[in-house]
Amino acid sequence: xxxxxxxxxxxxxxxxxxxxxxxxxxxxxxxxxxxxxxxxxxxxxxxxxxxxxxxxxxxxxxxxxxxxxxxxxxxxxxxxxxxxxxxxxxxxxxxxxxxxxxxxxxxxxxxxxxxxxxxxxxxxxxxxxxx
Length: 131
Known about the structure:
Blueprint: H1 3-10, H2 14-22, E1 30-31, E2 37-38, H3 41-55, H4 60-71, H5 77-111, H6 121-127
Helix pairs in contact: 3-4
């Protein structure tokens, strides 16, 4: 199947499919006599796997490791778990950071009068030196 058919089957743009190929996440497809990429069902399955992993927030590098583990029938599930647990820790850290950001911004919004006066604690806070 050609790249347009694969794009329709996976919901991924052709540009993204080519990027995943260049990043080594999918095997290079064979080529037609006219030098067009020819994909098979294995490519579609791998692209769906990649798409799902990316939807869970795994980086391209992490997805590469997951694809390698997925393909390795002799893998230890502990390796997969370790990678997923590290990603979960990163998500938890990001959530904590977002909560801190929200709390700070919420306080600033509460302190701002939001009227015709020029003074604004939001801008004052942003202009303060961090340190």
